[in-house]
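Protein modeling request. Please complete all fields; requests missing the sequence field cannot be processed.
Requester role: graduate student
Desired output: 3D structure, token encoding
Chains: 1
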Amino acid sequence: MAEHQVTFTTLEDSPGGQPAPPTTVSVPTGSLLTEAAKLAGVEVNQPCGAQGRCGRCTLQITEGDIRRRSTVRLSPSDIAEGYALACQSIIEGDVSVIVPPQEKIERLLTTERTVAEVVVPATYEPQQDQTIQKVTLHLTPPDMSDQTDDWSRLKTALRKQAGIQDALPPLRLLRNIGPQLREADWHVTAVLDTTTWDCPDCPPRIIDILPASVAETKPLLGAAIDIGTTTVTLWLVNLDSGKVLSQAAEYNGQISRGEDVISRIIFTGKDGGAEELKTLVLETVNTLLERACKRVKADPPISPQDVVKATIAGNSTMLHLLLGIPAESIRLMPFITSVNQVPTYTAGEVGLNIHPDGSVDCLPGVASYVGADISAGVLSSGVDETDQITLFIDVGTNGEIVLGSREWLVTCACSAGPAFEGAGVRDGMRATKGAIEEMWINSDTYEPSFRVIGGGKPRGICGSGLISLLAETFITGIVDKGGNINTALDIPRVRKGEHGWEYVVVWAEESSHGQDITFTHVDVDNLLRAKAAIYAGFTVLAESVGIPLDLVEQVLIGGSFGKYINVEKAIEIGLLPDLPWDRYEFLGNTSVHGAYLTLLDRNARQQIRDIASRMTYIELSADNTFYNAFMSALFLPHTDLSRFPSVESILTKKKT
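Delivered output (656 residues):
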């Protein structure tokens, strides 16, 4: 098979776009541009999982030619200038390629709760409540009259001095036990995990033995981790005091290979795809561990190796990908996971850069699309303990919903798609620097005003900005209830573009990239589908138990994206039910908070296990009920305007 030279020149993400030195690789005929880029060490984002849908892996061919399998989101002028989708371009000769600056995450990511706001549970007693324990032991040194082996000597001390009848040693410990006991002068502290959830009758497992003098100065550390489809969040915790020492968050490295769970599952079907996704998420988590440890001022300094336990929450797909478990069955009927209750493993087995024999406890999920992040969210929000009828929503790419109280819980999931993350929208982008995050439109002049993340000129619109923009264009009459742009408006901002009718949000000279930022009919349609899926989801859930939405006493919204939602605008587009605003509460990242509670408290860990088993899962694709509700919600705010009296009132006032 013929070999071809592919030369990549990467433009730096800096003023003037200065090129980096070119990189050349040799690949066989039929290779994809993305494969050549990977070989060259060139980063090319593939947010749709290399399916050729998003158009955001566009590169420019300056010499030679390639065969395009798809030209989605490329105009005739783009093709004439040599632009091609890297994931859909087949190499059949020598080519030179320019790689434009890839979208980078620049927004400072924090959690809703700061370290100061995270309250240690009032009843927390480390030696009683958590599974990790430290036991200080005085061993009798061997002599000619007592030649008991070192391991048996340690077990005897555990039994006589701590009441621990048996314990399991990792092989690493046995390899080092002799030197460790002697260097500590037979005065040691054993660190044990006393409970294994998948084997309650199993003896405690020893994680490490330390010289007692060292253990006195070394904090016992744990990590609570939420692996979200978009964002990974980590809390570093002192297990002795229960205090959160530091927090760190970063976008999930898997985003470059798929922005939603389905795209990532599809990507696992590519050669080496599953291993690549596993590596990307582990790199993200391990980077956060390093960052969180560096933020703690301690003498001596702490490191990730001092962390002896991690509790991990995340949706079912994220946990499967983290553990290298095939996830294909999640997206195929009848939508079954390989496992919902993952056994406890060691960090060495998982690849987490904490103490190699530290415990990794992945929290339990419910079903393919209702994972441990929702179980953790129910725990931390208290839905399972309240007498009020509560609607709990995690708004994101995969909208997960729980309805109930202490007496009953039902749950479902609906695929909203990545529109609220900026994908599938012409000028959509993630919530990074330069994104419009809030919009207002003058009802007389139809002129917009907006707020930009980081200030300065905008370069796109993020999810919260898109919700605001859709609401404003609807209320001002630029877009009708069916999502059609009002072509009768005689204003320059409403025009016919390459993709149909559109509203110009920002003129080229006012944007950071010198191009118009527009809102097209296709964009509106994608947003309508996203909001309709979420609204239909909790509508069907409520109907399944015979609860009218107006009887819901509180609406709790979790997730990192949820805290940026403007309730008024979300109601105006029909994303959220039309309830009094005081019934809404934004909780931020309930998933990582639930992971924190279970890290500290064995009772909370048992509670989350019970929550997962108590929730009744409703499969929305089982019949036409969801489809009918979805079709009814594909309007602004809904085909039945009586469901949204506050919006109806606004529209009535505008007519008069």
